[in-house]
Design brief:
The chain has 492 residues and is of the alpha+beta class. It has 14 helices and 18 strands. Helix 2 runs parallel beside helix 4, helix 6 packs across helix 7 and helix 8 runs antiparallel to helix 10. It is globular. The N terminus is likely disordered.
Length: 492
């Protein structure tokens, strides 16, 4: 029997609107662009700096969520005559529209990233650029940074280059449509190759010890005048598409490390005591983790639809996937000691989303220079010293997580006292101040994660349980306890 979607009352909608307004204030999210910035964007949209190379004959396509207009990437995939593959990957050339020190640049340096809220986004660049002249929208000639990767028959990259070019995307695709077309055999060859190349790149990732977590995402949608929450399980096409972006980020990092100045996205490996703790948790959940099996190998073997596996994956994500940081270097003689991103298991940088993330414009510019074996422009070099610190101030993750928390609380406001089926996905048993009777549960319906307390027994990680909703308040001052459940039935 189909589940009926849970709707918000008018009181809940009002409470959510107030809470979202406060969240924007707390995060100091701008309410709009100043008139001089809007005027500069309109002028830049009319007169971008166009490249000499014309690559509009490439039948590129984009893959993004339905309705997206800020399209950073487009690709074309083909087989090479001598074997292997060629990947053309076009990235929006924001530097063709933004000049260092102008009003657009100054505003972008304040905003740092695009912020996404359930009731709208706060873009990095004015829509005239981010959703218009600079976006890789279909049938629009746009300046881009055009990457060209050659891969061998095993998916290993043998050559990468990047240069400016004028491009034109032919089609705007979404993930579900891509998956259907590939699975049904109706996809054109360039799109069908996404599975071949993506699968090979996933195997290469496994060989080098990279990690890709596939936990379902909480997704907020707005339908029929009401916000809703659902779990979105990643499609295979999501992973294949991500591999194209990852290989570009790795190629960019290698190019900068070989060529001189650069900026990397790095991540340390988890300390030994965290790995030891996870081994203990795996045993408690009945997950077989032999000592000769690496963490990455174990992650790939788990099924996120299994309650106990999902609980372990949730715990592992917090324990081992440590915070990533940016590190810049002015020349080859000052490369940082740590250049690897632990989860990717290779040097890596952000360079594929310049419409939505400030650092990508600079990384792309450095790579264009390195690929042509010439000095980067002064504006890109001058920003390197401050760029890591600037990016650390970005509030994109806080906006994402807290927005979902507020929707959860508003969605459940009228359900206080109701009981739900849930799974214990985290416990506080091993914190510095352990409390095995507190933790976190994941509801099957609606798609909510919330704190849970138990009065009589310790929580069992990975166990199914019945819980009662004790609090759902978007205005509650402790953002971690806006939604609070209590255990009312023995765990299984």
């Amino acid at each position: 029997m189909p589940r009926r979607p849970m709707r918000m009352s008018e009181a809940a909608k009002a409470a959510l609107a107030t809470a979202l307004k406060k969240l924007r204030t707390d995060l100091q999210a701008p309410s709009g662009f100043p008139e001089p910035v809007l005027a500069a964007a309109e002028a830049a949209a009319r007169a971008p700096r166009l490249p000499d190379r014309d690559a509009t004959d490439l039948p590129l396509f984009t893959i993004d969520p339905p309705g997206s207009k800020d399209l950073d990437q487009a690709m074309h995939l083909e087989r090479r005559p001598g074997g292997g593959f060629r990947v053309h990957y076009a990235i929006a050339d924001v530097a063709a529209f933004v000049t260092a020190g102008d009003a657009l640049d100054a505003e972008a340096r304040k905003r740092i990233v695009t912020l996404y809220f359930p009731d709208g986004k706060v873009p990095l660049h004015p829509p005239a650029l981010s959703e218009g002249a600079a976006s890789l929208l279909p049938n629009q000639k746009v300046p881009a940074l055009l990457w060209e990767h050659d891969l061998d028959a095993h998916g290993e990259v043998t050559r990468s280059s990047v240069s400016r070019a004028l491009v034109r995307s032919r089609a705007r695709l979404d993930y579900a449509g891509v998956q259907r077309a590939i699975d049904s055999g109706t996809a054109e060859e360039s799109l069908a190759l996404l599975r071949d190349i993506g699968t090979l790149r996933e195997a290469v990732e496994a060989e080098r010890g990279g990690i890709s977590l596939s936990l379902p995402d909480q997704e907020v949608t707005f339908e029929d005048g009401s916000f809703r929450l659902s779990y979105r399980a990643a499609l295979a096409a999501d992973g294949w598409n991500e591999q194209i972006s990852l290989l570009t980020g790795m190629a960019a990092a290698t190019m900068m490390l070989n060529g001189g100045p650069g900026i990397l996205r790095t991540q340390d490996r988890a300390p030994t005591h965290e790995v030891t703790r996870l081994h203990r948790i795996a045993r408690g959940l009945g997950i077989d983790w032999p000592h000769h099996v690496s963490y990455a190998e174990l992650i790939r073997s788990l099924d996120p639809h299994d309650h106990k596996h999902a609980a372990f994956l949730h715990e592992a994500a917090g324990a081992l996937l440590l915070k990533s940081v940016y590190k810049s270097f002015p020349d080859h003689d000052h490369i940082p000691a740590q250049t690897v991103h632990a989860a990717i298991a290779a040097p890596y940088t952000h360079c594929t989303a310049p419409l939505r993330r400030l650092v990508d414009r600079y990384a792309g510019e450095l790579c264009v220079a390195a690929s042509a074996d010439r000095e980067p422009p002064e504006w890109a070099l001058a920003a390197l010293g401050d760029l890591p610190g600037t990016m650390e101030k970005a509030k994109g993750s806080a906006a994402d997580r807290q927005s979902v928390d507020l929707v959860e609380a508003a969605l459940l406001m009228e359900k206080v006292g109701s009981t739900f089926d849930a799974v214990v996905i985290d416990t506080d048993a091993e914190l510095a101040q352990p409390n095995p009777r507190e933790g976190q549960v994941q509801l099957a319906e609606p798609a909510v994660l919330g704190r849970v307390t138990s009065a009589a027994v310790d929580l069992e990680l990975g166990a199914s349980a019945r819980v009662r909703l004790e609090r759902a308040d978007p205005a509650f001052p402790d953002k971690n306890r806006r939604v609070l459940f209590s255990l009312v039935q023995e765990q299984e």
